[in-house]
Amino acid sequence: MRIVIVAVGSRGDVAPYTGLGLRLREAGHDVAIAAHAPFADYVRSTGLGFSPLPMDLRAELDSREGWRVLRRSPLALARFARMYAEHATAMAEATAAAAEDAELLMLSAMGWMGLHVAEGMGIPSMGVFLQPMDATAEFPPSLVTTRSLGGWGNAAAARVLRTLGQRPFRSAVRALRARYGLPDIAPGELFRRLEESGWPNCYGFSPAVVPRPADWPPGSEVVGYWWPAAEPGWRPPSELADFLAAGPPPVFVGFGSMTAEDGAELGAAVAGALRRAGVRGVVQAGWAGLAAEAGDDVIAVGEVPHGWLFPRMAAVVHHAGAGTTAAALRAGVPAVPVPAAADQPFWADRITRIGVSPGPVPFRRVTAERLGEAVRAAVTERRYREQAGRLADIIATEDGAGSVLRVVDALASRT
Predict the structure, then answer these.
(1) I need a labelling partner for 139 at 20 to 30 A (CA). Which of 85, 212, 217, 282 fits?
(2) Which residue has the higher pLDDT, 253 or 295?
(3) Which letter does DSSP use for residue 212 in this model?
């Protein structure tokens, strides 16, 4: 079966699908990933096919309007939808081009344009989401708030936001469906149809982190994480290997795809926090341009596979993106989440609730004092490392990619 995975977003939104794609390929499927063009080399290096999607997300976020998007509010979510909607027509065309000759579309949470493409082509589709998107009474919408609105309010808010979030894309969707001779469909009707049909949707996180809500629709299952493919031939830089060998395990600090107006100022706060906590540090610049002065106790690094680096850390300070959160849990180390927007506060809240973190330090409230106190707690209070180790043992027994493969095989048997 020729499978196209539509993975829209930052590197953390793409990387887990490389491992999933390789698992599917090992089972005999022909797999390609459709993602933003800057990820072409990365995806191809794993041996998977690649189809480009428009938009440079880093460039979009590293602007004054992008900084306004990186906030936690319904207004920021609307700005994020509007930012993507400006590329909606090009995104629809690129998704359709990527799907040529495909026999199955697998869609990330932001790859939903593929629903209409799959319907138009008469092929099956399924969800492979990294964050909870179905409405539930058990917790509020993961993209907006961590404060419960009550059972009815949680579910109602998720449905309303899901529907409203489609409005900026209506004209592009209408044109796409007309291209395939399909009638227009309102967002509410689309989601109702998906729920009633039992549309298959595999959530790529552990049930030990987010148990499957009892009121999710049939077809939506929490299957466990899938992991980024190993990068062929990668070796740690000698400077990093020497630094790790020269002293006790350090603390990693990196904010992934989050951008910052002043990377130097943020870097100074991070350096101050590490000094206050009395720990060595591995600092990754990331999209924030995090600037930290290297020295005997701090080393600055570029891209380093989290699967290799995190198990060697005393703790991980990260932005609480879905992929980085998963990597830290897999490594069995305590975490200090520094969430900014979208689903990040949700994951920060989750890892605090399950006992692997002393609690979040919001991205826009980072100070040397606040972050230093949290880092000190993470590395000195044994309960966080012990619980992180227990969670890592559970996660190691799960086979999220295998569960997806079984769904794919079931879909293949029907075609």
Answers:
(1) 85
(2) 253
(3) P
- Condensed to tens digits (0 to 9), the pLDDT of residues 141-183 reads 887 778 888 999 999 999 888 888 788 888 889 999 999 999 9
Q: Let me know: does 62 contact 259? Beta carbons within 8 Å.
A: yes
Q: DSSP label at 211?
A: P
The token duo for 134 is 């179905």
Closest CA to 269 of 283, 287, 257: 283
Best CA proximity match to 220, nearest among 237, 207, 203, 208:
203
Q: What is the DSSP letter of 183?
A: P
Here the contacts of 387-391 (C-beta below 8 Å, separation 24 or greater) are 387/354, 387/355, 387/356, 388/328, 388/329, 388/331, 388/332, 388/333, 388/334, 388/335, 388/356, 389/332, 391/206, 391/208, 391/209, 391/329, 391/332, 391/354, 391/356
Percent of the chain's residues with pLDDT above 90: 64
**Euclidean distance between CA atoms 238 and 346, whole angstroms:** 37
Sheet holding 335-337, edge to edge: 298-301, 281-284, 251-253, 315-318, 335-337
DSSP for 342-382? Answer: TTHHHHHHHHHHTTS-S----GGG--HHHHHHHHHHHHH-H
Residue 230 and residue 234: Cα distance in Å, rounded? 8
Which DSSP state fits 236? Answer: -
The C-alpha atoms of residue 97 and residue 93 are separated, in whole angstroms, by 6
Q: Delineate the domains of the chain, giving CATH numbers in brackets.
A: 2-225+398-414 (3.40.50.2000), 238-396 (3.40.50.2000)
Direct distance between the N- and C-terminal alpha carbons of the chain, in angstroms, rounded to an integer: 10
Axis-axis angle for helices 11-26, 322-331 (nearest 10)? 70
